[in-house]
Amino acid sequence: MTNLIHVQHAESRSVEQFEIVDTGWRGDGLFAVILGAEGRALLESNDAHDYALMVARRRRHGIPAAAEQVEAGTGKYPYQRMFCFGRSE
């Protein structure tokens, strides 16, 4: 299974991608999904949020709680963003 997601824009032929950098529970009980990407705009898009939400729902944490600012990445991708979710009842 791959964590690499491709997004093709309707108005162009360019394809951007993002992938899961890390997941886990924070100390405050929220489930965090960290995505990495080549560009800031992709991490600020609805596609990134929707994918992070899908991952969080697999852990029964489907209530959006916070989305951190896009930051400099530390690995394969130059940018990353953390999405946090609360527990779904």
Layout of SSEs?
Blueprint lengths: L3 E5 L6 E11 L5 E7 L2 H4 L2 H12 L5 E5 L3 E2 L6 E8 L3
Antiparallel strand pairs: 1-2, 2-3, 3-6, 4-6, 5-6
Give the uncertain stretches in residue-range form.
Answer: 5-10
Strand content: 35-45%
The sequence of SSEs as H and E is EEEHHEEE
Helix fraction? Answer: 10-25%
Give the number of helices: 2
Number of DSSP-assigned strands:
6
Calculate the terminal CA-CA distance, rounded to whole Å.
28 Å
Largest sheet: 6 strands, antiparallel
The overall average pLDDT, rounded, is 84
Estimated radius of gyration: 13 Å
Could you characterize the architecture of this molecule?
- This protein has 89 residues and is of the alpha+beta class.
- Helices cover 18% and strands 43% of the residues.
- The protein contains two helices and six strands.
- Strand 5 (71-72) and strand 6 (79-86) form a beta hairpin.
Sum this structure up briefly:
This protein has helices at residues 40-43, 46-57, and strands spanning 4-8, 15-25, 31-37, 63-67, 71-72, 79-86. The protein is of the alpha+beta class and 89 residues long.
